[in-house]
Each structure stands twice: as C-alpha cells, then as structure tokens.
Amino acid sequence: MGTLMKYEFRKTWKMKGIILCITAFFQLIFSISVVAKSDGWLGLSVTGLAFTAICSVFLIGVHGIHILSRDINTKQSYMLFMTPNSSYKILGAKTLENGLSVIIAGVFYTVLAIADITILAVRYDDVKAFLDLFNVVLKEAGTELTAYTFSLTMIQTIISWVFLISMGYLAVVICATLLLGNRFNGVLSLIVFFLIAFMVGNVSDALQAAVGGFSGIATAVDAVFHIILTAVMYFITAWIMDNKLSV
Amino acid sequence: MQYDSKTPIYIQVINSIKLDIINERIKPGEKLPSSRDLAVQYTINPNTAARVYQELEREGVCYTKRGMGTFVTDDEETIIQCRQEMAQGCLNDFLRQIYELGITKEEAIELIKKTK
Amino acid sequence: MLESIELTKKFLGKTAVDGISLKLEPGHIYAMLGPNGSGKTTWMKMAAGLIKPTSGVVNYNGSPVGVDSRRDVAYMSTEPYFYDWMTIGDVGKYYQDFFADFSMEKYDEMLQDMALEKKLKCKNLSSGMLAKLKVAVTMARDAKVYMLDEPLNGIDLLARDEVLNAIIKHAGEDKILLVSSHLVEELESVVDYAIFINRSKLVGVYEVEELRQNQCISLADKYREVFGSIEMGGAC
After folding, report:
1. Would an 8 Å CB–CB cutoff place C59 in contact with chain B?
2. Does residue B4 lie in a domain region?
3. Is residue C229 part of a domain?
4. What ipTM was predicted for this assembly?
5. Residues of C with Cβ-Cβ distance to A76 under 8 angstroms
6. If pLDDT is split at 50, 70 and 90, which confidence band does A199 have?
7. Separation between Cα atoms, residue C54 and residue C45, nearest integer Å
8. 8 A C-beta contact, residue C163 and residue C121
9. How far is the C-alpha of A11 from the C-alpha of C229, rounded, in Å?
10. What residue in C sits closest to A11 (Cα-Cα)?
11. Chain B within 8 Å of C113 (Cβ-Cβ)?
12. With 90 as the cut, is the pLDDT of residue B6 above it?
C-alpha cells in the first residue's frame, strides 16, 4: 500500500510543487507589501492567494480523477494491474493519497488564511473595522466569523470535496466498464454524477438542519456523513473494478 | 546455426558436434558445455539440448561424470567409427543424387577422379 | 499449470477469442503463432488477468487467475506501457518495488548486454530500445510463467539473439514460457510446442521435433500449410 501511494504521489508531485511555488510567491509579495504598506501590491497578493487556494484544492482533486482515468484507459494501466495488487488496494492508494493531499492543502490554506487575516487586522485598522462590521451582519444571521467558525466551514468544504472526488472516481470507472462502448458514455456518467451529488447535497442539508444549524456538532455529523459516503463510493468503485474492469 | 527444414533439430546438432569431435575442434576427453549453455550456443530448446546429450551418450560418443558434466569419449575407436558412419551418410546422399541424374557408380568414380 | 477452458472474449460484437481450451505445462517453451489480429494478444491478456473473459476461465495451478497469480506470472505486453516520467533505472526500481522475484543484478546485466543506459528517459527511447527494455525488465524476474507478446517485434538481428538467449536461459523444469510472434522461423528452434491460432479459434498444438521426425516438415512449413492451405512436405 505504501509503495502504491509512493507512486501515486510521484504522479502528482510536479503539479503540487508548482502550486506551492505560486503560493510562496504571492505570500512573499503579501509579506513585503504588509511591511511596506503598499496597498496596490497587497490587493494583488490577497487576490492571488485566495485564487491559488481555491484553485489548488480544486485542481488536486480533478487531477487525481484524471490520473485514475489515464491509469485504467491507456496502456499505462498495465503498470498497476500487472502487479499483485487488488483493485481495492490500487484504488485505496489513490483515494488516500488524493484525499490526504486535498486535506493537507485545505488545512494549509485555512491556517495561512487565518494567519494572514490576523496580520491584516493587526496592521490595518480599516480591516479590523470591516471584520467587526461583517460580524455584526453575521450575528443577525445567528453566526459570526471567528477562526473557529471559519475552520469549521473549511473542514466541511474539504470533506465534501473529497467525497465529490470519490464520486468522480466512480464515474470514471463506470465509464470504462459498464458504459464501455456506449455512445453517450460521457454524458450518462456526468448525469449520474450530478444526480448523486444533488441528492447527497440535499440529504446533507437536511441532516444539518435536523442537528440544529451551524455548530461544531453539526459539522462533525456532516463530516461523518460524508466520510461514510466516501467509503461507500470507494467500495462500490473497487468492486466494479475488481469484477468488470478490463484494462 | 541454420537448420534445414526436414531433419529433426536434435539430429542436426548431434551431427554438428560429431563433426567438431572428428575434426578435433573438440578434443577427446574434453568437457562439453552444460546442456543449458549448449542450448544458448545453438539457439535451441533446452529440452532438445538435453536430448542431444542423451543420444550422444547412448552412441558412446560422450559420457557423463556425476556432478562434473558431460565429456567427449577418450576411446579413439568410437571416434573413428563415428567418422565412418558420417562418411557413409555423405556417400549415401551423394549416390542418391547421382543416381537421380542417371549416372552410374562407375561413371561417378571417373567423375570424382577427374575433379580437382 | 496454466489452463484456459472454453475461453471467450467479445468486444462490442466482435469476437476476439472464441472458445479456446489450452493447457500449458511447466518445463516447456511454447510459441503462440497466428496472423495479426487472430486473438493471441487477447488470450495472453486474459491469462495475465488484465482482461476479464466474456465466458470461460483461465486457471493457474487450479484456481482462476487474479491478484495472486500475478506474483508468479511475468507478462510483457507488445505495446510500451511505462510512465512518461520514468528513466530506464526507474523502471527497474518500479519492478523491484512490486515483484519479490525481481533481481536488480540480472536487470543490470541484461541492460548491459542490450546496450541500454539507466539514465535514459523512456519517453525518448526508440521503438527498438523500448522493445529491448521491456524484455530486460520482464526477464529480470524469476517468475514461474513468462508470457511475452511479440518480443521480437521491431528489434534488430543482434538484439533478437539476445532475446532468444534470455528465453532459453530462463527455461526450466518448473517454468512455463509462452512467446507470441508472427515470425515463425525465428522461434522454431527455440520452442518445444507451437500453438496455432487463427480467426479467434485454436487451430492446433504441434510439437516441433515431432513434426520433423514423423511428417518431415518444419514448423514454418506447417504454418504455411495451415494458414495458406498449401500442401507441404510429406516425403520423409
């Protein structure tokens, strides 16, 4: 399993390295402009950082789905499937590597965002005033923006994203097996993908409403719900691979 | 080595080894390659190579020392006899072709004498 | 023992392998011969557990091929399959990571024999070099079953000798070797048995020396007879 994950990481490290470089670049500009109080550069770096954060978490996941597709649809599939590893292990390594990457990236950007916002609030009175005002509005809605609530939201987003990736895996595998040779292969699996995503989203919302809105407990419940669903997706996908997949 | 298409490969390899022994390219009593090396040397199947040594042993051209390998016989009689057998084989082939051309044995002898 | 029973594979209405029953025993080298597109590759991929049969089964030592049999089976596909980022050295490391029977020493030796350098990138190799690399890395395993799909394709004469030598050296009492090709003559002296496949069906299994001894006909001539419907040989 460790070996499989090592090679999964080997397939993605280049992209991750580039993302890290871009982040470091914007963070450097941010740090310099905070010290130099250069508003123009500050705006650019904050926009850049936010954009990079969202894009990278998204890209890492999509890239993982793309790699799975390549690993079952091209001749490179032999590299994995001629080794004495079951589909459960192969897919498990992919899910773990990609899931962990997304989570680590998510946590990294969350911590970075909290740190940078804190710096801004200390350095600029305007920002602090804005955040306070923002919180007044939020309090009306029954919540507020603190490091804690921000983290909770991020955790929820990341975990539901990991679940969506596992669904992407399922869609790719269904395309390569059950729908193989079907003319509407791509469209059909896309429809299935959105249908399940929509249903799960609704159930998740209902669940949260039942537990009582936005809170630590609600987040935990939602996280567990998504983790269980991810596991279910994983087992279904691996089962199909084991029984139906010809590479 | 090129193999002709009608004779079993093991017989062709046997003949080639016998020729080497008769010409003393392989000396009496000399150790022969292992059957795997023989297979590589002649690009033949290892089972064919094993069969080559079985046959050569049966004819007394070779013998096996346990754990040491296969060796060419020291007995010169056997080698001389081997040479005669092969010569006879060549003659038979020659005569068959000559007869097909409608040439008698006597005419053939004359032809051989004239040929330089 | 590797055995296929009534093995059939259909691809979208086209039958690639049609009810082939075949038994391969340890201690022999088999050639799988037939024109391009006759079903050799598909049969091998099913035996390697890469493709699922439509019906029928391939058993290795009595149980269906799958994850466990891959430990013992060294399969070499005819198409290159290495990752783009790999160097020749990386390919060796990959095999070492996944196959307990892989020997890095043997690999180094074979690379040297075939004049391949470890630092070269797979992406930049010529087709001949790739073909040699595939053979080297596959034969560096000490497997129980070797299945080589068209190992002689696209390589020069000298490399052919290397490949044939590697095949001969790996044969053994407990090993099965299966080599597919559409070049009959090249394999004739090396194999004990030849499996003829035509239009997805098994034509027959012939013992090379037996053909010569009893029918006075070479394997190549038998091939011409079977596939070209030309009467050959006969006169012993």
Report:
1. no
2. no
3. no
4. 0.88
5. 81-83
6. confident
7. 13
8. no
9. 51
10. C85
11. no
12. no
Least confident of A153-162, C31-40, C41-50: A153-162
How many distinct structural domains can be found in chain C? 1
Spatial CA neighbour of C26 closest among C147, C176, C171, C160: C176
CATH code, B67: 1.10.10.10
Q: Which residue among C161, C192, C233 places its CB closest to the CB of B45?
A: C192
Contact: A3, C98; criterion CB under 8 Å = yes
Per-residue pLDDT of C75-89, as tens digits, reads 999 988 999 999 999
Q: Provide the pLDDT confidence category of residue A197 given band limits of 50, 70 and 90.
A: confident
For chain B, list residues whose CB is within 8 angstroms of any CB belonging to chain C: 3, 5-10, 36, 39-40, 42-48, 51
C-alpha to C-alpha distance for A197 and A205, rounded to whole angstroms: 12
CATH classification of the domain holding C41: 3.40.50.300
B6, B8, B40 ranked by CB distance to C169: nearest: B40
Amino acid at C148: L
Q: Which two tokens stand for residue C8?
A: 């059939």
> Taking all residues of chain B, what is their mean pLDDT, rounded to a whole number?
91
Q: Choose among C12, C81, C99: nearest Cβ to A78.
A: C81
Task: Let me know: does B61 contact B80? Beta carbons within 8 Å.
Answer: no
Q: How many independent structural domains does chain B possess?
A: 1
Chain B interface includes C217 (CB < 8 A)? yes
Are C207 and C31 in contact, with CB atoms under 8 Å apart? no
Q: Which of C28, C191, C212 sits opposite B8 (nearest CB)?
A: C212
Task: Output the pTM of the full model.
Answer: 0.87
Mutate to test the interface with C, among B14, B43, B55 (most CBs of C within 10 A): B43
Is residue B2 assigned to a domain? no
What is the separation of C-alpha A197 from the centre of its chain, rounded to a whole number of angstroms? 14
Residues of A in contact with C52 (CB under 8 A): 243-246
Put simply, whether C158 touches B (Cβ < 8 Å) is no
- DSSP assignments along C85-123, one per residue: T-BHHHHHHHHHHH-TTB-HHHHHHHHHHTT--TTSBGG
**Domain contains C210:** no
Q: What residue type is A123 in one-letter code? A: R
CB B42 within 8 A of CB B13: yes
Residue B105: give the domain boundaries.
Answer: 9-114
- Which residues on neighbouring strands pair with residue B71, listed in sequence order? B31, B63
Chains A and C touch (3+ CB pairs under 8 A): yes
Whether residue B1 is contained in a domain is answered as: no
Binary contact (B43, C28; C-beta < 8 A): no
| pLDDT 10s digits, C123-181 | 999 888 999 999 999 999 999 999 999 999 888 888 888 899 999 998 988 999 999 99
Of residues A63, A56, A75, A80, the one with CA closest to residue A7: A80
Which chains have at least 3 CB atom pairs separated by less than 8 Å from chain C? A, B
Which of A62, A145, A57 lies closest to A107 in space, CA to CA? A57
Name the residue facing C171 among B8, B10, B46 (closest C-beta).
B46
